[in-house]
Design a protein that fits this description.
The structure holds two protein chains of two kinds. By secondary structure, chain A is α/β, with parallel strands linked by helices. Chain A has helices at residues 26-31, 36-42, 46-55, 68-74, 99-105, 107-121, 135-150, 181-188, 217-229, 231-237, 268-274, 309-314, 333-347, 353-373, 378-389, 397-411, 413-417, and strands spanning 84-89, 125-130, 166-171, 212-216, 245-252, 258-263, 266-267, 285-289, 298-299, 306-307, 323-328. Helices cover 41% and strands 12% of the residues of chain A. In chain A, β2, α7 and β3 (166-171) form a beta-alpha-beta unit. The longest helix of chain A has 21 residues, at 353-373. By secondary structure, chain B is of the alpha/beta class. Among the domains of chain B are: 5-93, Ubiquitin-like (UB roll), CATH 3.10.20.740; 280-346 and 484-644 and 657-663, Rossmann fold (3-Layer(aba) Sandwich), CATH 3.40.50; 350-479, Dimethylsulfoxide Reductase, domain 2. In chain B, β8 (168-171) and β9 form a beta hairpin. Chain B is globular. The chains are: A alpha/beta, B alpha/beta. Chains A and B meet through α13, α14 and α15 of A and α2 of B.
């Protein structure tokens, strides 16, 4: 049973094997064209593999959108230290649910992507860091890895190529912060998951102080396709500097929520209409969170844009992790801000002052405000406190909490004012509020 | 590459060596960048975000505590953006911080208070409920008040890196993140109090000091700790002639900010209820309070009689009295009582070491050498337990300079964890075990050797020979017991050596010989308790004791004089490395007199003239007459430590070699004095066996 009805308009590259039964079996994967890219890569010099990834214009799918080929080239492959390959499967950004599908429906594609990464940076040991809440996926991934070992796609001298690679699953323990790459490294090392100081970056000193290549599930999963069909072909799918396709997790007030693979540069409103089947109940669109809860919110009038990293950055938001949340006209934006801040206050690791104290303060203030005990002076304070966090925290979690809040206060100020003077929330009895 | 980086801060040109952190570099230009979590010598944290500054050509504010200076860097610390960022951080810190400054121990010397005054908002915008968690007691020494905590991690880092213990950690996350002790609800640690002192706010408070006073009501007296022989400076907070607090926050003295539980809290014996405050004279078999003139007359009468009939005197000096007192005491014994029967509880074979190194310069280690030299060899000592400051220096040396530490001990010690190599030996195999380290030690550029009482007599010479055979510069130190163990040796509290290790004409009886002498007529014990461990063989000697408490020895006395402790007198003491430092009297305990004054009064009562009994005058005499003590006075008078010069000449060995047996105090014992310190008695870890070797 698939996650959602596939849409014929999708460009299925990473998801093209979705729905084939027994996907955890290496044989099934091979029978459907799998592991051919790896075999091709074994005949390529590492520089060529990295070059191909650079040409593909693949950018990190975890949220930051850093060019993947460039990241790979930072790893000193001649270092005498062991090099580690880590896959970030700590998918925790609210609104995001694509990595789970990639692991559930095509786990060997991820394994193959990591094998190619291993070839590129001369690494022989990899870890997939899966969030603890994905208990069933941990089991599935372990089955797939066992099957890959059994069929000689992992372990010593893989398929007689002379390349050794061991792959392990590491279970996260329920912290959003551990999706931050350096906190993830601390967690993998068995420490408390708090971010590290950068520099040094993981490419130079990552896991156990060794050079480490760290990418998102979707990023690694794109790699076999790039090697198989060539970087240029992948790049051609998207817009300039924004290569390939992307899994967008569409949720919120739409008729057909789901994960859809579309090329980068697809128009946003058209996506909501043609894939999501429009806003639920024929309501009007109020706002869109384009790439996970940490992105600044776009108002309906700002949504007439194409979806790629650069266009969204220009619009003052981010493509992020691909978690698109559609918000209809019945939604209270104060409540939305509160819901988002509740998450960040709960997930702040407590390391640095502005995030630890700021998120909690904002949560309490928004709660009080929404409960009808707000003062007019609170409205600017919410914005100012958020700005005191923005860009001043140790890691990006503080920014993630500040950005949506600042955008909501600025763009929906009148909704805040509608809560003043002890008035009840104007949206209290609207059906949309049941979700908040 | 240039070895100086040029940068501009607030329009001022600054030079700094490459790698200097911006927060330190600006200090040279008199600019302050505020910070809570940054702490000199500890790992970087970048958590408080107080030190944000503007650096040109960077989009965001930069963290000055982790940013190394770079050529041409242009920094602004005095702009509206920076001011606003600092205001914001202080505001964040105060959201959940209880504003209980009027009852908080830290009030008046709190970094958060100071920063709020200097950088904060005048009023609060925070209207919500504050996060509250009840205060916890982790040990007799350490209390933790979570709401006051700003999570700067200083305590965790000083315990982990400085003390090598990792007794503190953190649990929960976000605003609920909380410092926790290693045993779930209590601490099992050194109880050193470093975490309390390093806390920038009042989150960690000490059970000894809390709610007793306000900081500005105390006067602060810098003196030297009387407990072990490391010679740490401790600054005593005094109110109404009572010592309330000990710390060294101004980082003065050779120990910087370091103090162990003894230096920080074990001053409390000074106001123990059993403290002697009146002379005691034995009447009808019982010790009864007497006036000073009665007691002095009683002693003078008996001593004169014994001297006239040619009786035998024995004098036992102290390892905690000042150099001046020791000098005066041996002069008294030799000139007035006419005896060389003078000794003290010896704990290390310094005379043999000085003889073996005779004529060499730069062969005696200082406490600073343990931090600065490339390699340290520890032979036969549990440094963390017995010499806590040297252990601190060693750990810091490893942390900051990647020094190599070598350990040769009978059992596991904490230094093993930072050691490049450790060897174990059975008693007697000390020197043989060093052979296993020979190759590694030869490869070191220099070496400091610290050895305990396991190495004495001929073994000291063999150790020096071993050091010579390595072909690298080696410095030595013999580990000793108490604050002036070294001074007692230097000042000639020895039966065969006078001050400065000059041989006496006819060696007298050693401590053991005096106690075993059945025909001893008079025994004079100053600040020591030999009868705590030994039996007096003589049946009816006339025993005079000067001490703080009625010790086992004092209970045998005919006359007991109530003496002042090291915290109640002036003078100088010499630590195990030969570093001389000055004591400063912090308080006066009614009814007591410093030992020096008691000696002087006794001399006058005996009709003898030993000169004026004033510490500064006697120290002048010591500087003029005791080998090695001609040290510059300005260093001492400004609170510094001056190392005595090396000897140039032979030091005669005692006529009969006797086993030296050190006390081997743990962190929680201090000879007979320790039992009168409430702190040392109430901590659960005492006497220290709980985590020996952890």
């Amino acid at each position: 049973m698939l996650y959602n009805e596939p849409n014929p308009l999708e460009t299925r590259v990473l998801t093209k094997r979705f729905g084939i039964p027994n996907s955890e079996k290496a044989e099934v994967y091979v029978a459907n064209g799998g592991y051919q890219a790896f075999l091709k890569a074994t005949g390529m010099p590492p520089e060529k593999i990295i070059e191909e990834v650079k040409v593909s214009n693949l950018r990190g799918r975890g949220g930051a959108g850093f060019p993947t080929g460039l990241k790979w080239s930072f790893v000193p492959r001649t270092s005498p230290k062991p090099k580690y390959l880590i896959c970030n499967a700590d998918e925790s950004e609210p609104g995001t649910c694509k990595d789970r599908l990639l692991m559930e429906y095509d786990p060997h594609q991820l394994i193959e992507g990591m094998l190619i990464g291993g070839l590129a940076v001369d690494s022989h040991k990899g870890y997939i860091y899966i969030r603890g809440e994905y208990r069933y996926l941990i089991t599935m991934m372990e089955h797939a890895i066992d099957d890959a070992y059994a069929h000689g796609w992992l372990g010593k001298n893989i398929q007689g190529t002379g390349f050794d690679f061991d792959l392990y699953v590491h279970t996260g323990a329920g912290a959003y912060e551990c999706g931050e790459e350096t906190a993830l490294l601390d967690s993998i090392e068995g420490k408390r998951g708090v971010p590290r100081m950068k520099p040094p970056f993981p490419a130079v000193a990552g896991a156990w102080g060794c050079p480490t290549l760290l990418n998102n599930v979707e990023t690694y999963s794109a790699v076999p396709n790039i090697i198989r069909d060539g970087g240029a072909a992948f790049a051609a799918l998207g817009t300039p500097k924004n290569g390939g396709t992307r899994l967008v997790c569409l949720s919120g007030h739409v008729n057909k929520p789901g994960v859809y693979e579309i090329p980068l540069g697809y128009p946003m409103l058209e996506f909501i209409e043609k894939f999501g089947g429009g806003v639920r109940g024929g309501k009007k669109l109020k706002a869109v969170i384009p790439g996970g809860s940490s992105c600044p919110v776009l108002t309906a009038s700002e949504c007439d844009i194409i979806m790629d990293y650069d266009t969204l950055a220009k619009a003052g938001s981010m493509l992020g992790s691909g978690g698109m949340v559609v918000i209809d006209e019945d939604t209270c934006m104060v409540k939305a801000a509160l819901r988002i801040m509740r998450f960040y206050a709960h997930e702040s690791c407590g390391w640095c002052v502005p995030c630890r104290e700021g998120t909690t303060w904002l949560r309490k203030m928004l709660q009080r405000f929404h409960d009808g005990m707000g003062q007019a002076s609170d409205i600017p304070i919410i914005g100012q406190v958020s700005k005191n966090m923005l860009g001043r925290t140790f890691c990006a979690l503080g920014d993630a909490a500040a950005m949506p809040t600042i955008s909501i206060v600025e763009k929906f100020r009148e909704e805040f004012e509608a809560h003043l003077d002890g008035r009840p929330c104007p949206y209290e009895h609207k059906p949309a509020m049941a979700l908040a | 590459m240039s070895d100086i980086v040029h940068l501009t801060v607030d329009g001022k040109a600054i030079e700094a060596p490459p790698g200097t952190l911006l927060i330190n570099a600006v200090k040279r230009a008199g600019i302050e960048i505020p910070a809570f979590c940054y702490y000199d010598g500890l790992k970087l944290q970048a958590a408080c975000r107080m030190c944000l500054v503007e650096v040109e050509k960077t989009p965001k504010l930069q963290v000055a505590c982790t940013l190394p200076v770079a050529e041409g860097m242009v920094v602004h610390t005095d702009t509206p953006t920076v001011h606003e960022a600092r205001k914001g951080m202080v505001e964040f810190l105060l959201t959940n911080h209880p504003l209980d400054c009027p009852v908080c121990d830290k009030g008046g010397e709190c970094e958060l208070q100071d920063m709020t005054f200097r950088y904060g908002f005048g009023e609060s915008r925070f209207l919500e409920q504050k996060q509250h968690i009840d205060e916890k007691q982790w040990s007799a020494v350490v209390y933790f008040d979570r709401p006051r905590c700003i999570n700067c991690y200083r305590c965790i880092r000083v315990c982990d890196e400085g003390m090598g213990l990792t007794a503190l950690g953190i649990t929960n996350r976000g605003v609920l993140a909380e410092i926790i002790p290693n045993e779930h609800d209590h601490l099992n640690c050194d109880e050193c109090g470093m975490c309390i002192d390093i806390c920038p706010v009042g989150a960690l408070t000490s059970g000894m000091y809390r709610y007793k006073t306000r900081p500005w009501e105390m006067k602060h007296v810098g003196t030297i700790c009387t407990h072990c022989s490391n010679g740490c400076k401790t600054t005593l907070g005094v109110r109404n002639d009572e010592i309330i607090r000990g710390n060294n926050r101004d980082r003065s003295g050779l120990n910087g900010e370091f103090l162990c539980i003894k230096g920080r809290y074990a001053f409390d014996f000074t106001h123990h209820a059993e403290r002697l405050q009146s002379p005691l004279v034995r009447r009808n078999g019982k010790l009864e309070a007497a006036s000073w003139s009665e007691a002095l007359a009683e002693v003078a009468k008996n001593w004169t009689a014994i001297k006239q009939r040619g009786g035998r005197f024995g004098v036992i000096g102290s390892t905690r009295t000042t150099n001046e007192e020791n000098f005066f005491l041996q002069k008294f014994a030799r000139q007035v009582l006419g005896t060389n029967n003078i000794d003290h509880h010896r704990s290390g074979d310094v005379p043999t070491l000085l003889d073996a190194l005779s004529g060499r310069t730069d062969a005696l280690a200082t406490t600073a050498d343990f931090y600065e030299r490339k390699a340290v060899l520890i032979v036969g000592a549990d440094l963390s337990q017995e010499q806590p400051f040297l252990a601190w220096q060693v750990r810091a040396n490893v942390r900051h300079h990647n020094a190599h530490i070598y350990v040769a001990t009978p059992g596991p010690v904490r230094e093993d964890r930072v050691a490049a190599a450790s060897v174990r030996y059975q008693e007697g195999g000390e020197l043989a075990s060093l052979e296993n380290l020979r190759e590694k030690l030869r490869a070191e550029p220099e070496l400091v050797v610290a050895f305990g009482d396991a190495i004495q007599g001929d073994a000291v010479r063999q150790l020096v020979n071993f050091g010579d055979s390595l072909g690298v510069p080696v410095k030595y130190v013999a580990l000793l017991d108490y604050s002036n163990s070294r001074g007692a040796l230097d000042m000639g509290l020895l039966p065969h050596l006078g001050p400065g290790y000059h041989a006496v004409d006819t060696p007298g009886m050693s401590l053991a010989a005096m106690l075993a002498d059945e025909s001893l007529d008079a025994l004079w014990v100053v600040g020591a308790n030999p009868l705590g461990r030994h039996v007096l063989a003589a049946s009816k000697p006339f025993v005079v004791v000067q001490d703080l408490f009625l010790t086992d020895t004092a209970e045998h006395a005919a006359v007991v004089f109530p003496a002042a402790s090291a915290y109640e007198k002036s003078g100088t003491v010499t630590n195990l490395c030969g570093e001389v430092q000055r004591l400063e009297a912090a308080i006066k305990v009614a009814g007591t007199k410093p030992d020096l004054e008691i000696f002087g009064l006794l001399a006058r009562e005996m009709g003898a003239n030993l000169g004026i009994w004033q510490a500064s005058k006697i120290f002048e005499e010591i500087r003029g007459s005791v080998r090695g003590y001609n040290i510059p006075l300005p260093i001492l008078t400004t609170g510094g430590a001056a190392q005595t010069a090396a000897l140039n000449g032979h030091v005669p060995a005692p006529p009969r070699a006797e086993r030296i047996q050190a006390a081997h105090n743990t962190l929680f014992t201090s000879g007979s004095l320790g039992q009168f310190s409430r702190t040392l008695q109430v901590v659960l870890e005492a006497p220290g066996a709980l985590y020996q070797g952890r």
